[in-house]
Amino acid sequence: MSIHATARTAAYLGVDVGTSSTKAVLVSPGGEVLGLRTRQHRVHRGPGGIAEMPMEVWWEDFRTLTAGLLSEQPVRVRAIGVSGMGPCVGVTDLDDVPLAPAALYGVDQRARGEIREMTERIGRDRLLAQRDSLLTTQAGGPKLAWFRARHPEAFEAGVRCWMPAGWMVRRLTGEYVLDRHSASQMTPLYDPATGQWDLEMLEATAPGAQLPRLGWSAQIAGHTRRLQDLPELAPGIPVIHGSIDAWAEQESVGAVEPGQLLLMYGTTLFLIANANQRVRHPAMWGTTGTRPGTHNLAGGLATSGALTDWLREITGESGYEALVAEAGAVPPGSGGLLSLPYFAGERTPIQDPDARGMLAGLTLSHTRGHLYRSLLEGTAFAVRHNIEVMETAGAHIGEVTCAGGGVASDLWPQIVSDVTGRAQLLRRDTVGAAYGDAFMAARAVGEAGELEEWNPVERVIEPRPTPVYDELYAAFRELYRVTADLQHRLAALQD
């Protein structure tokens, strides 16, 4: 939705750097979308499980999108919110010159050797008890150690560590900051008991790294400077610390209270369960929340929307409309076709970077509609698996809210509701993390109403009784167990 704006119209700017694109949005004080722009970019994937992106892309996207929005909508920007995929690890020297492209979140598997070494040195029990998470490819600390092993001279001279939100805040304000939620995913460098960096752990992990000042996501980090490469943006505008995209998406749909669960449908699928106390499980990620006194148990699939994009590309489609229509015409169960969505390894709850995707039960009668639906059903089975593990850990899950690009069509969230047996709330605006950034920015300057006023619930996706999904879910769990060794052997050949 978009409305006409004038130079006297107040607005909040939200910008989110995602895995596949960056999105910028201008939002009115009442929560109406005044303008929206998106810029595509690509992730570079290389040997050894590398998934990376030049840090320069983050600011160039911000600059280009913001300039375009402000040329279309000559508003008075009251505050700025930022977020990005994460936890990423970008490293620069003390002049803010990047040493290399930034390592992405759990899809980047470069630091597996460091994960093993650090886990052995620190101990699994200590990590889980003191940090609420074990070391996996999602953790930022081992990736920082990986960079130090390859750039020792730079670390001896001193380096800084960045995520997308912190990098944009730096370019906008000159401040070197990070929000506490993002810091809690730099395991084992952040102590959730104190809400501060553990400097002894830093010295043992990556000596020479200078870590940023910490704050809360919706806390003002600084104010805009006069920017020569972005003259459209006035100086003196408050800029918040921001956060990781999934947590900004939480804010965009109000899924931040204890007992609430966010399902974020994107290139990867992310789950965040909220609690008012620390919750931990060895297969999941325990984190600090975006707000004081909040904690999360989080999980994530390594691929979800990336699977449908893969099928779209190899079948020569420029869009998704035909594939969605064909998959929607296929009955639940995809004609006995079962997929494991582990095409880039898997994160939670199996934490297996050497897992590989499978399509089991193929026959000559299966069409691409069956394939597409089966991939969606595979991600839904993975969501159910994650929810079951979260509840085993003591996370209470009552209300479920969905968000992200994958809810543009009813097909995917309906399949997830049918597989999990849980209703999902769908709010009016599904712009995503950038909208949450704008909401947090408005809160930071005391100008936001309740989220219900900004973004009311539009409808509820109710689960439908689908007995075949219970049978297929049991097969889904068994298929990984009986083929894991074979998957690992194939992964070794691919490496």
UniProtKB/TrEMBL annotation:
SUPFAM superfamilies: Actin-like ATPase domain. It comes from the Bacteria. Residues 263-444 form the Carbohydrate kinase FGGY C-terminal domain. Residues 12-246 form the Carbohydrate kinase FGGY N-terminal domain. It holds the Pfam family FGGY_C. One of its GO terms (molecular function) is phosphotransferase activity, alcohol group as acceptor. Keywords: Carbohydrate metabolism, Kinase, Transferase, Xylose metabolism. InterPro entries: ATPase_NBD, Carb_kinase_FGGY, Carb_kinase_FGGY_CS, FGGY_C, FGGY_Carb_Kinase, FGGY_N. The keyword Kinase applies. The keyword Kinase applies. GO terms for biological process: D-xylose metabolic process. Belongs to the FGGY kinase family. This is Sugar kinase.
